[in-house]
Amino acid sequence: MLRPAVSFCLFVSFAEADAAARNALRTLRVGEKARLHTPARARDPYLHDDAPPALVAQLYFAELPSLEAAFSGLARTLGPGASCEAMRVRPFPVPQPAFGRCTYLVAYAGPAEDPDAWHAHYLAHHAPIMAELPGIRELEIYTPVQWVGAATGWRRVRSLQRNKVAFDSPQALEAALNSPVRAKMRADFATFPRYAGTVSHYPMLTIDPREETRAQT
Questions:
Q1: Would you state the pLDDT for residue 3?
Q2: In this structure, is residue 2 part of a structural domain?
Q3: Strands 155-156 and 82-91, how do they pair?
Q4: Does residue 3 sit within a domain?
Q5: Which residues does 217 contact at the CB level (< 8 Å), separation at least 6?
Q6: Using alpha carbons only, how large is the chain's radius of gyration in Å?
Q7: pLDDT tens digits for 122-164?
Q8: How many domains is the chain partitioned into structurally?
Q9: 152, 133 contact by CB (below 8 A)
C-alpha cells in the first residue's frame, strides 16, 4: 500500500526537557513519522550561536487537519514548557539520500522586507547549493502555514522559514560546514533580498523513535 506524502511538520521545542517528556516523545504515535533531536557538537567556521534547545521533536503529517487534530492532545501528554510551530514541508533531492543521524536545524525568525521574494530566491538559488554539501543525506525547507490549534499553554511561534540538512555523524556535518560548498552558500547569502531578523543554527543528534522501538521488539 502506498504511504501518503508527508506535507506538514509540527516542531515542538523544549529549552529544558525532563525524562518524562523525552520518554513520552519516544513512544508517541501521531502522524506519519517522527524525528527527535538532542544537542550535538560540530564546529561552524562562520557562526557561533547560543546554546541549542534541550529537545526538538518533528512530527510529520500528510494533511494539515490531521496535524491540527493531534495538536490539542499533545500538550496534555508532554506537559508544559514547549514552543511549537506548524510548517509546510518542502523536501529537496540529494545525491545519496539516507536517514541522517546528525541534523543542522536552522531557523530564520524574520522579518524579511518582502517575504515572497525572499522565499523565491531561497528555494530557487540557495537550496540547490545546499544539496551540493558533501555527505548530505536529507534536505528539507519549511515555510509558514496558517494553522488552528486549541490553547495548550505552549508558546506558539511563527518563523519566516526553517531548514534542516542531515548527515551521518557530527564529524560529517562539520566536514560539510568547512567545505567549499559552505563558502559558496555564504556568498549566495549576501545576495538575499533584504532581511532584518535573527538566524539560529543548531547541530543536533537525531533518532527515529519508531525505528528504535521496532528494533527493540
A1: 47
A2: no
A3: parallel
A4: no
A5: none
A6: 17
A7: 999 999 999 999 999 999 999 999 999 877 789 999 999 999 9
A8: 1
A9: no
